[in-house]
Amino acid sequence: MKFGAGYSLTALDDPIAIRDFAQALDGAGFDFVTTAGHLLSSPPGRYPERPNATYAGPFYDPFVLFGYLAGLTRQIRFRTSILILPLYPTAIVAKQAAQLSTLSGGRFELGVGISWNGSENAALGQEFGSRGRRIEEQIAVLRRLWTEPFVTFEGRWHRFDAVGLNRPPAGGIPIWIGSGTDDRVLRRVAKLADGWIAQGDPAEPMARLRRHLLEYGRNPDEFGLTARVAVGPQGTSVWIDSAQRLKSLGATHLAIGAEPNVAPAAALAQILEAKRVLDSELGG
Prior knowledge:
This protein is α/β, with parallel strands linked by helices and 284 residues long. The protein has helices spanning 15-27, 62-70, 90-103, 118-123, 131-145, 183-192, 203-215, 236-248, 264-282; strands at residues 2-6, 32-35, 77-80, 83-84, 108-113, 151-154, 159-163, 175-179, 195-198, 224-231, 253-258.
């Protein structure tokens, strides 16, 4: 079992606190740290059906943030959770991810998804309705750019004529997909991803995802599943029960998160204590 934790959606506004959070996780033996968020922000209250934190920001750019943290840590891995891939030109993501992986010693993983925010897509000049189909082609192109110095490819949204990074990252870069549980989306995950970042309870969708993996000739036991354990005042027995249940469902990675209203220092303390307890109970 691998343990991670994430910066809140809006991270922190203090660069020193950002550094201290990553270094504390690194020193405590955490396996990965994540960050999430949108490329653009909207005014609070614009989407009353959603919490402000999910769209209002401000958000950190993950490549800049992780580039900064890579030079300040030794072993912890970095993962976008998630990068809204259809907002970006694929070649730019390939270049930034490859260089971050190389300069961090192979410690970068790309978590991607498609998002619900049509206004953000419009601001970037991207068609909202095709984002699911585009991300499938984008992942295929990323795989090529990370394994071949020059690529020839022609698809619906990409055309490469013997061009590429000319310095693919050693060992490639794992791609995770964060998504809901619609069956069409789970088929995409099973076909294209190295792992799934579950949103909500993965119990029922994991059974379907395992079936889809087998349909595509993939071994479910070699596929990653990241699930979340929320820690707070309810006590360690609740954390342990939740983590053991997720492990029984096939979770390979646990992202430990504090409640959103907890101050950063207290949240970090809770996350560190939860990792200590869960590592002992789950056997690493």
